[in-house]
Amino acid sequence: MTVTAIANPTTAEGGDGAPKAKGGRKKKLVIVLVLLLAVGGAAYWFVLRPKPAHPAPKPGNVVKLDPIQLNLASSHYLRLGLALQLVQGVKEADGSKALDAAIEEFSGQQMADVNDPTKREAYKKKLEKVLDERYDGEVMGVYFTEFVTQ
What we know:
Layout: H1 9-14, H2 20-48, E1 59-64, E2 68-71, E3 77-87, H3 95-106, H4 111-115, H5 117-134, E4 139-149
Antiparallel strand pairs: 1-3, 2-3, 3-4
Helix pairs in contact: 3-5
């Protein structure tokens, strides 16, 4: 009688009853997932995270401009004096841009509209917005130093 030994395929690879190939695949999968999470976290941190808002500019010098006379509607006029609130670090500003913007804003307006406090505040806000664009952020506010209508 001859005895033939048949090898058990589950014990031939590792001797412990579990094939090595499946255990190695699980380790590789876990390593790949950890690496993907690390790369995703790094991408969020450096690229996608919200950027901090720029701090509000601090007020600097105030530049007073010479008053000007503007023609309003119906033969009325406005004597307007302006002062520009500059941001900190800016020493001076060319007043011609501000005076030109004021002329564009107020010329031809009705005297009743110019004298109305709520409309005057709206004109001032619009003028501040225009000056912010013309001065590239160097002017943060405008003050009326003279405002006389006739």
